[in-house]
Amino acid sequence: MATQSPLLLALDLTGTFAFGLNGALTAVRAVQLDVVGVVALGMITALGGGVIRDVIIGSFPPATFVDWRYFALASVGGLLAFAFSRFLDRLEGPITVLDAIGLSTFAVIGASKALTHGLGIGPALALGVVTGVGGGTIRDILIGRIPSVLRSDLYAIPALVAAGITVATTQLDVYGLPAALGAAAVCFTIRMLGVHLELNAPGPPWRGPGTDPPEPDPADRH
Amino acid sequence: MATQSPLLLALDLTGTFAFGLNGALTAVRAVQLDVVGVVALGMITALGGGVIRDVIIGSFPPATFVDWRYFALASVGGLLAFAFSRFLDRLEGPITVLDAIGLSTFAVIGASKALTHGLGIGPALALGVVTGVGGGTIRDILIGRIPSVLRSDLYAIPALVAAGITVATTQLDVYGLPAALGAAAVCFTIRMLGVHLELNAPGPPWRGPGTDPPEPDPADRH
Amino acid sequence: MATQSPLLLALDLTGTFAFGLNGALTAVRAVQLDVVGVVALGMITALGGGVIRDVIIGSFPPATFVDWRYFALASVGGLLAFAFSRFLDRLEGPITVLDAIGLSTFAVIGASKALTHGLGIGPALALGVVTGVGGGTIRDILIGRIPSVLRSDLYAIPALVAAGITVATTQLDVYGLPAALGAAAVCFTIRMLGVHLELNAPGPPWRGPGTDPPEPDPADRH
User: Fold this and answer.
1) What is the pTM of this model?
2) Using the 8-state DSSP alphabet, how is residue C152 labeled?
């Protein structure tokens, strides 16, 4: 199975670390938190998506609670963010790249794991996206923000594309390490293009009277 | 079992579609969202209550992730809301009726499923209500609103009544399709009376100093 | 096993009642809610942490849904808070003590149960804390507040210490009723010292430009 490939595992662990770091940095910028809060939010960002996926497909305990490396990397990321937020704030570029690696890997592994557990196409797509964006969504709820994934940036869409390629190649019986890496690479490319070109997903044609324009949020970073 | 009746299934699917449509419309009115956000919130509104129920009773994967019709109807409802929000905004009446059908059916099926899985009276009542109101509650959290079910309208109470009738008839060994439809009809009637007479559940006699009066929320619609 | 000790059970039930009462009181003070909302938030505060723990370790149905006394005490606490909020508001001292008993017991039982289900040290620590603070966190999210556990007071840290003692004594094979009570007593002492000396966990050295100072929240009480 592709999930056991050392390369995918390395990408998955890299993404976990990046989500822990980036999730905690977002939290530090957004609200006044103590050390427990910062590290907890980093860990929730890093592990939350996979936990939701495993709980919904009924795989207990969640994978990230069994392999200690996920827990360790997520908490180290959160602690680094707590200690070095001033310095890390200047490293937005590299952190965004690491974060996109996490998003891509999580979406592919999430969709693949859902299929392995017998779910259909729709749920597999949904769980691929949820694995990628779920942790950041819980973090945003906890710090009192409308999850940025719902309203700005190309973040959920590249995850959906990666999940779609994973599902399609599995249906065609050609899913394996090359397909997984290809799906992740497409997601990564769309995400990075979105960051550089500041692309957004389309909004609805009409939103009702008296709705406010979206406020730009200085803390926004997935 | 009453849940397998074609009539209850039809009501359940109708409710799923209505929750998807109505949940997405509420989201469109409340915050600036992109297409992914609107459809995701519609699906979460439609499927969220049943997922929480199934996760708590340990029924994996959740029913709505197994039968593709739930996923399909929820996402179609969300997509219609995204595309035609301007037009649908004028259809508040019919949509409220469909939504009340969903609430009623979900509460009955939720309480019945909890009893079937061996839970007691209290948990079955709670899970009946959660099945009916859980999806809308998650949606409200995600769009940064205090869940309207907690503070206004008769919404949770009719669901609680429906769950109560379901539990009582099951205890008396007379639960079946007629009892299920009767419980749903009572819930539907209370809910529609509440809408037309603008009834609210009673508030606490005293709330402490310095609390604000409740703000009317133009986006409020369950 | 220590969890079956009558003393630990009594502390656990006391904590459940206190969390239901205190959780509902916090909700009453913070937002305009109807009776369903107040009781629901009390029950969520009392039962939420244990439900998250049991769902993550895959123990279904959650313990608090099987033993009716948890449900009963949590809802009675919520109902008392609804009916007597004016009077109870003056009893902050005793309620804080009961709440600290709940926090301490929940953290010890949570960590111990995670270990019993085969989880490692990190996850057991995390689930001990989550059992103690999870219910209040969900309540705060539902009433639109940033969870106070993330940003103020010594609340998560004593829970972490109690979970740590539980894990350490289990590793050393000396865990039992004395160790459990000792761990709970240490947590209780730190928590009460924190309340009386108004101690807070340390914040990050730097938080980024343009962040607001923390607003004191009159409704803040865990």
Assistant:
1) 0.88
2) S
